[in-house]
């Protein structure tokens, strides 16, 4: 390499990229409710919930619990899940309320939202893609990070 030659640099993977990867995973391998993955039958690419698909997008493989991620993948997972929560809070709020009518959590749980009996795969995939678009809208200018 010549001293004046500049090496290629890769753009960082953003939460928007990972949300789109999770949506693509669900389109290809199926969506699931109740647990991260439908492990019956046991396969390397099982149907997944939204959080499970984000975990696979971050790690490149099935992860049973986010604590199993290495520090870099964990940071990506938490940022991406946070971007989904921000989107859900703004556009699809689902707050848990106790028996006295008080809100239990101030943010929409992506797990409860995914597992809502009225939810379907297309809604989850569409929300992941829309959350990616919203992240891009808030964090990029002119297509640049």
Task: Supply database-style keywords.
globular, 145 residues, 5 helices, mainly alpha
| Beta fraction | under 5%
Q: Supply Rg.
A: 17 Å
Largest sheet: none
Assembly classification = single chain
Shape: globular
What is the count of β-strands? 0
Mean pLDDT: 88
Helix content: 40-55%
H/I helix tally: 5
- Whole-number total of structural domains: 1
- N-to-C SSE series? HHHHH
What is the distance, rounded to the nearest whole angstrom, between the alpha carbons of the first and last residues? 28 Å
The poorly predicted ranges are none
The class by helix and strand makeup works out as: mainly alpha
Pfam family, one: DUF6197
Protein name: SUKH-3 immunity protein
InterPro entries: DUF6197
Organism: Micromonospora thermarum
Polypeptide structure, described:
This protein has 145 residues and is mostly helical. The chain has one domain (15-139). 49% of the residues lie in helices and 0% in strands. The protein is built from 5 helices and no strands. It has helices at residues 15-29, 50-59, 71-91, 110-115, 121-139. Helix 1 (15-29) packs across helix 3 (71-91). The radius of gyration is 17 Å and the shape is globular.
List the helices and strands and how they pair.
Blueprint: H1 15-29, H2 50-59, H3 71-91, H4 110-115, H5 121-139
Pfam family, one: DUF6197
Organism: Micromonospora thermarum
Protein name: SUKH-3 immunity protein
Summary?
The chain is mostly helical and 145 residues long. The chain is 49% helix and 0% strand.
């Amino acid at each position: 390499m010549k001293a004046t030659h500049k090496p290629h640099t890769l753009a960082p993977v953003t939460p928007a990229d990972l949300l789109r990867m999770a949506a693509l995973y669900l389109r290809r391998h199926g969506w699931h409710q109740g647990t991260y993955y439908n492990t019956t039958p046991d396969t390397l690419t099982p149907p997944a919930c939204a959080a499970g698909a984000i975990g696979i997008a971050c790690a490149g493989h099935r992860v049973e619990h986010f604590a199993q991620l290495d520090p870099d993948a964990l940071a990506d997972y938490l940022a991406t899940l946070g971007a989904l929560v921000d989107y859900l809070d703004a556009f699809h709020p689902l707050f848990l309320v106790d028996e006295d009518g008080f809100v239990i959590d101030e943010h929409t749980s992506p797990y409860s939202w995914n597992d809502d009996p009225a939810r379907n795969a297309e809604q989850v995939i569409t929300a992941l893609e829309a959350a990616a678009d919203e992240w891009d809208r808030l964090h990029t200018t002119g297509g640049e990070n």
